[in-house]
């Protein structure tokens, strides 16, 4: 097994809801001699993490500054425009310094076109550098617990795969090589498309059953035993109080924000169009998540709040006489 030889100096850019706990896993788990250089446009966050890990986590003044100090860089920023700026800004971007031989890993969930644009730029200007897409799944709770799944944009035969796996396993549970550049992102977007569609279908199916007189707990049993069985029903049931641990039972306060689902769903529909994949549910799904993300009753809540957006009964226990 490798000994983290390649990770004596590591950079982390973007210390938000996901990036910060991921950085903290690295700071806690890499060997003592490793140094982590960090950068975020929000200075307060930088000061906090540097103070929490004195002499271990060091403050960079820009993405380019971080790149001059380290051999490996992880980035975790919101959207394609931020990724473009972090890598390609001519004054402060990573690629404005000499990044020959460095390994760059972008964990952001963005469009595959921007990812490939950055990859092509790096391949043209720094052929010895390597750039990977590596989006993650599992939410903020997963990032804190270190249980996120990681979808790597490379083949299992990639010479850097063992090194990448070793690094990513410090932050997550499962690392899945998806085959090649931008395919980690394609996998993540198609997963979130499917999960988003299932949540809508699940909400509608519960609603029609409940309005016909069925107890949602009976419906949940039926789906679990029948051909409709799926994780959204079983673990993220959109109907409140069917399962106490589902986000809906806590008022959808914990979970994957509906605005993030809207973003990922939109990226998936865009990708589908670009590659010529026909999807009859794409536009209607996007319209639904657009509506839910802009609805003050749903905004900032777990995406399965789409059940509320679609008019599902929430206080079914009192309304129907069930207890
Ligand atoms: P966030 O908004 O909490 O954090 C993003 C961080 O990036 C912020 O601290 C911001 O200041 C920083 N940033 C923005 N532009 C920058 C720049 N040019 N230079 C340096 N720093 C910059 O977002 P998040 O929830 O951590 O999500 C990050 C990515 O992970 C997104 O693409 C998101 O879709 C994806 N993701 C999020 C979740 C989730 O549940 N939050 C789950 C899986 C994947």
From TrEMBL:
Pathway noted in the entry: Amino-acid degradation; L-valine degradation
Gene Ontology CC terms: mitochondrion
Coiled-coil residue windows: none
Catalysed transformations (reactions): 3-hydroxy-2-methylpropanoate + NAD(+) = 2-methyl-3-oxopropanoate + NADH + H(+)
EC numbers: 1.1.1.31
PANTHER family noted in UniProt: 3-HYDROXYISOBUTYRATE DEHYDROGENASE-RELATED, DEHYDROGENASE, PUTATIVE-RELATED
Similarity comment text for this entry: Belongs to the HIBADH-related family. 3-hydroxyisobutyrate dehydrogenase subfamily.
Keyword Nucleotide-binding: no
A single MF term (Gene Ontology): NAD binding
Organism of this sequence: Didymella heteroderae
Protein name (record): 3-hydroxyisobutyrate dehydrogenase
